[in-house]
Structures are given as C-alpha cells and as structure tokens.
Amino acid sequence: MEDFTFVNKTEVRFGADRLDAELAPVMERFGKRILLTYGGGSIKKSGLYDRIMTALKDFEVFELDGIAPNPKIASVRDGQRLTKENDIDAILAVGGGSVIDASKLIASARFYDEDPWDLVINPDIRQTIDQLPFVDILTLSATGTEMNNGSVISNPDTHQKLATFGPNTPAVSFLDPTLTYSVSKWQTAAGSIDIMSHLFEQYFDNATNNDVQDGLREGVMRAVIKWAPVALADPKNYDARANLMWASTMGLNGLVGLGNQNDWTVHPIEHELSAYYDITHGVGLGILTPRWMSYILSETTAAKFAQYGRNVWHIVGDDDMAVAKQAIQQTYDWIKSLDVPMTLPGVDITSDEHFLAMADSAVEVGALDTDAYVKLQAEDVVKLFEASMTTDNFE
Amino acid sequence: MEDFTFVNKTEVRFGADRLDAELAPVMERFGKRILLTYGGGSIKKSGLYDRIMTALKDFEVFELDGIAPNPKIASVRDGQRLTKENDIDAILAVGGGSVIDASKLIASARFYDEDPWDLVINPDIRQTIDQLPFVDILTLSATGTEMNNGSVISNPDTHQKLATFGPNTPAVSFLDPTLTYSVSKWQTAAGSIDIMSHLFEQYFDNATNNDVQDGLREGVMRAVIKWAPVALADPKNYDARANLMWASTMGLNGLVGLGNQNDWTVHPIEHELSAYYDITHGVGLGILTPRWMSYILSETTAAKFAQYGRNVWHIVGDDDMAVAKQAIQQTYDWIKSLDVPMTLPGVDITSDEHFLAMADSAVEVGALDTDAYVKLQAEDVVKLFEASMTTDNFE
C-alpha cells in the first residue's frame, strides 16, 4: 500500500427529479451568468432542456451545443470564446463524459488567452490559472467525469486524444438515474464496459496488500456485472440505472485508485483506436480488455487474476492459474453478453495499417514500457491489436 | 436505493512520517494560534509530542491534555474556555476517537457562549454557529471520526452518551499507520470490532438493490477480517496497520452509508453499556453484535445474512438460512479470536439491575422501535443483554 493524498470536494445530489427544485439555488452560489453546454438535440427531445431553462428562468443563460462524442478541441475553442465574450460566472454541463470533459477545459480556458490545446499538451499551465466553477447534470453512466478533475480531448488535426487534468472537480453533480432511461443499448453497454475498465485499470496494480482498495473495486465490479444486463433488458429499471450511475462515479472519483503504484494500460491503447477511427470508447475497451488480460496472465500475475475470479466471479478452486483463466473467459463472456462487437473488424477496423503507429503512440503517451502493471513495448501492443482481429482465443 | 446528498471535503494525507514536513504548511492555512489537544501522556512517551512541537516551532501552541476515553463534556468545557481566552485559530487534535470527537465539539463551542452540553442535546444549534477549522493526527484506528462530522460525548452526571454532528469534517487528517504500532492488543481488537460494527450497521439495512454500496462494505469488511489478527500478532506490520487505518476511515466517512433507509442498532445499545459501566466501546460491540445478529435472523433477513456469508466469508451453499447461521457463527469466532471478552460478565457486568433502564434509553435515543433495520422494543434489547450473559448460543 503506497502513500497517498486525497481530497474530493464535489457535492453529489443523487436521485430522481431533484434538479427542478435544486438547480437554481445551486447555480445561485456562483452567479447569474451561466454557460449551458450540451451535445446534440437529445436534451431538447427529452424535455430536459425545457426543465433546465424553467429552473434557470431568473438567470442569464448562454449556450454552447453540439459537443460531440470524443470531444474535439474545436468545441473548447468555441466555449472559451463564449465565456470571455459573455463574462460567464459558471458552466452548467448537461450530458455525458464528452460534454462534461469539454466543459471542464472550457472552465480553465476562460482564464487563458491563447489556444486551449496548449492546456492539453502542457499540463502545468492549468494548475497555475483559475477555473470557472462548473456543475453537471449527468445523462450517461460511464466515464466518472462527474466527480473527478479529468478530461479527454481529441485533436483530429494531430490524431491525438489526450487526458488533461484541471485543479477542480465539479462543484456539484446532479446524478439522476432516470435521465439515463433513454440511453441506447449500445451506449449503455459501452458505458458499462468503460466503468469496468476503470476498475480493472486500478485493480491490476503492483501495490501489494492494498486490500481495502481491492475490496472496494471488487464490490463495484460485482454491481456493474449484475446490473448492466438488467439495464439493457429493461431500460427503465431504476435500480439498474442507479447502480450503474453510482458505479460510474465511484469507479473514477479518485478513491478506489488510492494506494496504487502503476498507471493505466488499456485506456491509452483504446484512445489510439478512437483517435484514428472515432469508434465508441467503451466498445474499443471491451474488445481490448480480454486480450490484454490473456496476454499479461503469467505465473507472476496469476494470483491477482485468481483473486479477481474468486471475489468478483465467485469461482471456486485452489489452482490460481485455472481460476484466473476462467475469470478472463467470464469477463469476455460478460462483455459479449452486452451485445457489442468483440473484434476490430466488428467496428470496421479491417486493416493493420495503423497498428504500429498506434502502438508506438500508446506506449509513449501511456508510458506503457515503464509505468504499466505489466510493462508493454510497442510490439506487445501490436500483438493485442492482432489478437483483436479474431475471436480465436475465446470461442 | 434511496436518494442522497454527499460531500466530504476532508483532505487525507496517508502514509508514514509525513507530518514532520507537512504539518506546518497545513496549519499555516488557518493561522498561528493553535490549540493542541491530546489524551494521556502516550504521545509524550512515543516522541510524537516532540515531533509536533518541533514542526510547529513558529506557531503559538496552547494545550488541552487529559481527554479521556468516552470523552466527557468536562473536557469540552475546558477546551471552550481555552479557545476563547487565547483567540485560537485552529485545533490540532492528536489521538484516537475520543480526542478528535471532543475537539470537534470544542471547535463549535468556541462560538457558543453557554454550556456546550446544550450543543449535544439541541443538535440544531451547531448548524447555526461557526466552527473552528480542525486538523487531526490519528493514533488509533477505530471510530472513523478522522473523516466525518460526528462526535460521541458522555455526560456522567446524566448517564448520557450521545452523538452530535457539526457542520464540518476535519480540514486535514494525517493518517500515519506507524503511529498505531504502539496501540495495545486490547485497543487494536476493540478498534477493529468498532470498524466492523460500523460496516454492519450500514450493511444490514432495508434499502433494496443498493449493490454498489453493499459491495464497498463487503470489501472493507474482508480487509478488516484479514488484517486485524495480523496486527495483533505483529503490531509493527505496516500493511496490517495501514489497512485497518484506511478501513476505519472508509467505514465511517459517510460514503458507504449512502442510499440507506435505516438508522443504527448496536451502537445505541452499546452506548448505554459504556455510559453506565465505562467499558471499552469496541469490546461492548463485540459482545452485542453476534447476539443481535442471531436475534434478528429470520426468514425475512436470511437473504441479506446469506449475502454477507457468501461475499464476505466465502461460504458456499444454496440454503440462505444455513449460510446465514454459519456467517453469524464465523462472525462470533472472528471476534473471539481477537482475544476479547465475549460476555458481559467478562467486562464485569454481572447484574441485570440496569438492563431495563439501558434498554429503554437505547430504544429512545436510537429510535430502535421505529428506525432500525429490524425494529426492537425495550424487551428485545433486554433479551440481547440477557443473551450476552453467557456464551450458550455460540459455543
């Protein structure tokens, strides 16, 4: 167990239909000039937009819409301009990870006079400048952005998809599971896989005897495994949506990663796929994760995979390697049961032309050769891509 | 899963030997006039007192010592006077639950001009007055006070031991597992039982499908079960002390109790024992807990106890009632393995003379007849006391 410092000041307001009464007094803390950020038109179709505008009828609300999945730096540039031109007091981000991620960076860009892509590639700058307060209303359970200080922003011009961290987490997060009733099966599955991947990235770590943390992670994993299929079959099941939403938040609010040694592996690799092919992040993770698990399984890692099998999947047996293999197979089967493609050709990646370039970049950006749980070189990552072309190892 | 609002702004600094370099810059945030609070002389014997005074050599440090286990309102009165007389900027509490609990109330009493016992019996007052910032250096893993806003304060004149909640949690908590190396076997056992009891109180709840939360609690329980015996056998085992310390914090920082319906049961009952007989809180909990579990086990509750048995104790079997009974027996055996008395006569409570008075008070203070997981009347609580006179049901 490694030393850590932890603080997370986000106020979570969890439950159905709280925003109508609570949004105005919350935003009032920060001022009257609000930048409302959102994605496509779904919040207008669902009526959420009207509810927000009714709640904020005594505020001056400016709008930035059209923030796309895998949010682009162009949206941040638009937001930067709007916050400056309109002397915005606070941002209200309504959406999933993309909208909230972009809004966090806009909140910093308000206090920066050059191109905000600088803030992504030079991480130190954001720690030295102010950040607008930002509140979110989450509409997709996946990234955990609703209670952390991270964003992932893409720059199509440079084929880069990079993480950036601001000084602050959201001031307030409204977590209303009913707002995810309308999330498609595809996005529900992808979001659930993303949550699981966050937990895996933090669980498979070389810090020893980090048992409280392992226990927290295992507990959240079991909840996701149980409830994701229920949400797919019964999209308006409150408990399913509530457990997935809270699992999303707990999976990446910093807490379950404390006491760790290593950085992440599968996320940096997937970010390359999304940057090159703009595929759905969680689906990419679902394809890569079982291949990564199989690839790094060894005498050294078998004990941890067996712990995962016993505590998460209730697999019984004394042979660590056998339990580990069964756990990886069950992981694959669970992802597949969510009805997502299980190969790269399934997401229209049929050629290996970018494998080496993506692998090189993943190793560099993710420091996979120095900081990962099991260190990977570019040729290892290429093998993961190659293994992802077929289902040979799993079916 | 019930609605909840959650925020916890405590900054945790976890790890060995951080305070020498970090204490001064942390206290500097609040001012130069510090009230240092502690218990008996153990921090002087261990050298911790000297380290603190060295770190704070540029501060004006005032002292309140002698805060006893089951902290008394008299210590709070002393602290109130010292904060007012010396215009204190912040409190630094060094100790376990008793010192930190008393210090939290002193931090409120600084801004109250009457007897601070008022603040305990009229909970609303504390929410309307200010509270000094307070920092703690934890020396005992047990109560979770290091990351919550609660205190338990005793008034020997009235035989009352009551919980009170302030507006704030600690500003900063230094969690250094090595500071618990010198904790006695008795206090280590009692503290570990206290942690487990906090988790039980939150786990056995009527909110359904609260799976993320159940998973978090189960995970922390497994860590305590694993590491408490190690800490007893090998008091300077860092990982044992680290897991118990972090389990203490996670067990009662508010997080694992979210989404619940019910109030607690065993704590209010034990508080009567401690108030009447001044026994060690955790030992009292260890005696009462298995009796309470057995008493409330029924067709209605068997499924939850079986879940506990399967996820925490890895008990295999399809018969919920059988798994539940085995889980309760294993709970008893684990507590007993910590070498603590398992009956009331073992803590010198040999007469039933106060059973009814204590039961009446527990039901009233704890609202056991209306708000508990399984509702209890005074006669039920008397039966728990009676069952605690012998080991008949367990051995």
From TrEMBL, chains A, B:
Protein name: Putative NADH-dependent butanol dehydrogenase
CDD domains: BDH
Gene3D superfamilies (alphabetical): 3.40.50.1970, Dehydroquinate synthase-like - alpha domain
CC annotations in GO: cytosol
Keyword Oxidoreductase appears in the UniProt entry: yes
Keywords: Oxidoreductase
Signal peptide residues on this chain, from the entry's feature table: none
Pfam families to which the protein is assigned, alphabetical: ADH_Fe_C, Fe-ADH
Residue ranges of every copy of the Fe-containing alcohol dehydrogenase-like C-terminal domain listed in the record: 188-389
Domain Alcohol dehydrogenase iron-type/glycerol dehydrogenase GldA per the UniProt entry, residue ranges: 10-177
Lineage top rank: taxon: Bacteria
Entry's Gene Ontology molecular function annotations: alcohol dehydrogenase (NADP+) activity; butanol dehydrogenase (NAD+) activity; metal ion binding; methylglyoxal reductase (NADPH) (acetol producing) activity
